[in-house]
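Query structure, 289 tokens:
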């Protein structure tokens, strides 16, 4: 495969030829930074772990050079951090038994530039070769601009494909803004109760981030546990870990849908839910006076 960035990398954990490794892909996640996949796309990783009929391929779109750093990494320059973070991502691919791990190595500025079509070209090429059934990316309400940029590039790439070559599902997942705020009917709920040890290790392997100043390992596992408990107020816990996603599939089934308006629909339903609950209680109070 030929990518636009000469520094892009393809890593195959089990050493299979690239074409064969990608062809077995059933689940693919495309994230902005090293460790985003392990935080947001754990459903795909768990679905494929220890399976021979389902395979997870991870794609990191940006280079991760500008990450915060402290501890033993505090004096690392951007090039050293780039090398460390890529090595950590490859370690995660080995631990999670990924089919393949691709590092496209774009600067964040390229992803946030709506006129830059090169990331879209690379993503399109990967989708055509791998033909995943399920794709995970960032949700469109994420508050990190680079995450939004990646999600939009993914949608653009999928929309460019013939209908028959598009994935069956596209999910926008949680990193920098979780999706607990969405009304329950809109949430895609992934049960990630199994393999706590694997989940913890997959995030913990990014030592440059965890010991470098961001406890993503504790925060990620804590959020999944919190979702499991707070998801339903009137029943006991049915799982020990949940993650939520925004269903972006309609945006790739009907390319005439306006992306902004589609997200506004989620926000409107959330606002209406809040208003309705308040008005129900206020109406009850008035009746009791």
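Result returned for the query:
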């Amino acid at each position: 495969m030929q990518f636009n960035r000469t520094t892009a990398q393809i890593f195959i954990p089990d050493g299979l030829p690239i074409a064969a490794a990608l062809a077995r892909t059933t689940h693919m996640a495309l994230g902005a930074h090293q460790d985003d996949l392990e935080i947001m796309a754990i459903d795909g990783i768990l679905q494929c772990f220890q399976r021979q009929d389902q395979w997870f391929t991870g794609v990191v779109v940006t280079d991760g050079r500008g990450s915060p750093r402290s501890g033993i990494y505090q004096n690392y320059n951007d090039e050293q951090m780039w090398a460390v973070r890529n090595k950590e991502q490859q370690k995660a691919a080995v631990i999670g038994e990924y089919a393949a791990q691709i590092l496209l190595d774009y600067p964040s500025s390229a992803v946030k530039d709506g006129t830059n079509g090169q990331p879209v070209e690379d993503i399109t090429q990967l989708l055509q070769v791998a033909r995943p059934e399920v794709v995970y990316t960032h949700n469109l309400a994420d508050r990190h601009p680079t995450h939004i940029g990646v999600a939009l590039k993914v949608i653009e790439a999928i929309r460019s494909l013939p209908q028959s070559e598009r994935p069956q599902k596209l999910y926008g997942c949680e990193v920098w803004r979780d999706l607990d705020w969405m009304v329950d009917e809109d949430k895609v709920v992934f049960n990630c109760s199994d393999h706590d040890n694997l989940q913890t290790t997959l995030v913990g392997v990014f030592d440059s981030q965890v010991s470098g100043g961001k406890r993503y390992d504790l925060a990620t596992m804590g959020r999944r546990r919190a979702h499991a408990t707070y998801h339903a107020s009137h029943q006991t816990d049915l799982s020990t870990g949940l993650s939520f996603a925004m269903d972006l599939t309609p945006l790739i089934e009907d390319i005439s849908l306006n992306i902004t308006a589609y997200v506004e629909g989620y926000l409107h339903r959330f606002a209406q839910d809040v208003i309705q609950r308040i008005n129900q209680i206020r109406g009850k109070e008035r009746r009791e006076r």
